[in-house]
């Protein structure tokens, strides 16, 4: 499948390069507001009251950053599947370069704003990156399908974090990162669409596996469950957003549920997806009712 999709990768890479607009992380960091921390520079230690960001936004920014920090693992997995020759190699390197500036910009912004505990952030980075990440996807089709879903999910998480941060500069930064993720999603989504033409049954089955077992790459971050609950409660990213703004738009755009002439594998995969959508809807409603019932009750560390 990797070799069969090589022409598609080349075409989509050219489209991506034509659409991408350069931006520079240093331009979105409030350097003039920054002050020295304690340590060799003898500055002021961090304390919670220094952060003006809502707790859920702090959580989202940390999860987003630590997720981006694991880029070496994502590069390794994608390179292992696609190789580093030809158009595939060009894309893997370009994607890695664009993703790399996200962590650079987010960390500098958080430090300059004194938005989160820098010591804890570094300790968590060491733990998270030290473990690494592997999606466990068994085939190239699965990797393409997973990355399609993940890039769209990440775009939504970044956008919503920016909208709720209450800081115009932070919102601009998150919009820039989200724009990158959107272009990456378009690349993988349309690559998956081409794979769907080559091997429809296997492609639908791979997407069903991904959708039904999906988890964000940051789920291994220390304290992820507590943070994810606060993030969900704030409306930054939750099951309802995942269903309405990620899964359903992808299924509609790709026409997955209306594909004709599928074999038994593809037909079964469509039924699995339909069943999972019902499960997502019911679970999202239960969580929303719980959040409404417990409005004002903090989710503590």
What does this structure look like?
The chain has 301 residues and is mainly alpha-helical. The protein has a single domain (51-293), classed as Ribonucleotide Reductase, subunit A (Orthogonal Bundle). It is 69% helix and 0% strand. The chain has 11 helices and no strands. The protein has helices spanning 6-19, 55-69, 71-82, 86-113, 118-131, 140-164, 168-198, 200-212, 224-233, 239-254, 264-293. Helix 2 (55-69) crosses helix 9 (224-233) and helix 6 packs across helix 10 (239-254). The radius of gyration is 20 Å and the shape is globular. The model has no long low-confidence stretch (mean pLDDT 91). InterPro entries: Fatty_acid_desaturase-2, Ferritin-like_SF, RNR-like. One of its GO terms (molecular function) is stearoyl-[ACP] desaturase activity. Fe cation 1 binds at residues 68, 99, 102, 181. Keywords: Fatty acid biosynthesis, Fatty acid metabolism, Iron, Lipid biosynthesis, Lipid metabolism, Metal-binding, Oxidoreductase. Its cofactor is Fe(2+); Fe cation.
